[in-house]
Design goal:
This protein is an alpha+beta fold. The protein has 15 helices and eleven strands. The protein binds zinc ion (ZN). The site of zinc ion (ZN) has 7 residues, from helix 4.
Length: 428
């Protein structure tokens, strides 16, 4: 087996990968929405490592894309917006782009004590559970609260990306993308949690937060144990203390955890839950408004943390499914929400492994696609495309005005847009 030793070391594998494996027809069918969207106006960026980056690329069809990929053999392919003309034209304007979310384990260092910084792939079986929990929460929020139906989940190293492909998502202007990611991140809620003297009670936890809690509760004790979150260590306690609403509550919580030294985090969780109930029932003034403190702790630790910059701009090219990563060779894979939690991220497909399987299939005279570990992920991608193309989504006209309405959300931030003319997206 050839070792990956540095930049461009993927090159020998990439030649075969782009010749025999990359799913051009499905990939281009997706990005042209079965010919409802102009594929030649879609922007691509190829990262070729030390050989440079090729920006503002576009292709007439799948054959032209294949020819260029076979010649340049990029380590990474990024997909950008669809423009009003081929993207290399100066003064071109973006017309549409999927709304993309990026749940990133790099944002979980407050809760991720298992492998951060120790693992080349930067993810292990334990912290991967945080990603799949985040995936579940965001998927439900996008569907139930925001009415999206066509969400392609893509896993790549420490990231879980959601490509929201509904027509109404692709035409969202940047101002709405910003507002939508703020709402999905519950930015107002998290800012409030860190405010001293706050007094949340059950009535102020929005339905969206309550729904997230219903996903977190059955999974939290496993996370608590794997990450040993209630260990009386300075870094762990400082993170817990920063959401305590006042000094008395913080002191009582820390004293209890310290008194339980030697017990595991789940036992501390149980005792903490009992103490909160007891203090509230006793009517202690500093405690009386904090009956939901444990729920707030769950949200604080386990609510998905996303890279906002990925979501807010229509013009930002983003890593595409079935592309690779130069230092590990790991392939970005479409993933199914129902079995994502059962996948071991350490076994995610790499280009090395796929190429070994391809070479073996060729030697044995077998069909290449059937014999590689990418097969189940290609199936997921094709099922997603079938649902997308069979829906009426592409045929439906966009409204002249978007009325962005979300029921049961946290208190709105300032400058919240209520509606805007669709032409606004062409002016940004
Ligand atoms: Zn880990």
């Amino acid at each position: 087996m050839t070792e990956l030793t540095g930049e461009r070391s993927l090159s020998p594998f990439l030649a075969l990968y782009y010749s025999r494996v990359f799913p051009y027809d499905d990939f281009c069918g997706w990005l042209s929405y079965n010919r409802h969207v102009s594929f030649p106006n879609r922007e691509f960026v190829f990262d070729c490592g030390i050989e440079g980056t090729h920006e503002h690329l576009s292709f007439s069809d799948a054959v032209a894309l294949k020819n260029k990929l076979r010649r340049l053999r990029p380590d990474k392919i990024e997909v950008g917006a669809v423009f009003s003309a081929p993207p290399r034209h100066i003064g071109n304007l973006p017309v549409e782009k999927e709304f993309v979310l990026d749940i990133d384990l790099a944002n979980y260092n407050h809760v991720r004590h298992c492998c951060a910084g120790n693992n080349e792939r930067e993810v292990c079986h334990d912290c991967y559970k945080l990603l799949t929990l985040g995936m579940r929460i965001i998927d439900r929020s996008l569907r139930i609260e925001h009415g999206f139906n066509h969400i392609l989940w893509v896993y790549h190293t420490r990231h879980m990306y959601a490509w929201v492909c509904d027509k109404k998502a692709r035409y969202l202007p940047n101002s709405y993308r910003q507002e939508l990611i703020n709402r999905l991140q519950h930015s107002h809620f998290f800012r409030s949690m860190k405010a001293k003297g706050r007094s949340f009670n059950s009535g102020l936890l929005s339905e969206s937060i309550q729904r997230a809690l219903s996903d977190i509760r059955p999974r939290f004790q496993q996370i608590l144990m794997q990450q040993n979150l209630f260990e009386d260590a300075p870094n762990k306690m400082s993170h817990l203390m920063c959401i305590m609403p006042n000094l008395t509550v913080g002191r009582d919580v820390h004293s209890l955890i310290r008194s339980l030294e030697g017990r595991d985090s789940c036992e501390k969780f149980t005792e903490l839950t009992k103490m909160i109930r007891s203090k509230v029932e006793m009517g202690i003034p500093e405690w009386v408004n904090h009956s939901r403190l444990m729920d707030e702790i769950l949200i604080w630790y386990a609510y998905p943390r996303m890279n906002q910059n990925v979501s807010i701009s229509m013009c930002l090219p983003l890593i595409a499914p079935f592309t690779t990563k130069s230092n590990t060779g790991e392939i970005a894979i479409p993933i199914d929400i129902d079995w994502a939690k059962d996948m071991n991220p350490v076994n995610a497909p790499t280009i090395e492994r796929v190429m070994e399987e391809v070479e073996l299939a060729i030697r044995n005279g077998h069909e290449v696609e059937v014999d590689t570990c990418l097969k189940p992920f290609l199936k997921i991608f094709r099922e997603f495309l079938t649902n997308l193309f069979n829906s009426n989504d592409q045929q439906e006209d966009l409204p002249n005005n978007i009325n962005y309405q979300e029921p049961n959300v946290d208190p709105p931030s300032n400058n919240q847009p209520k509606s805007t003319d669709m032409r606004a997206c062409h002016q940004q």
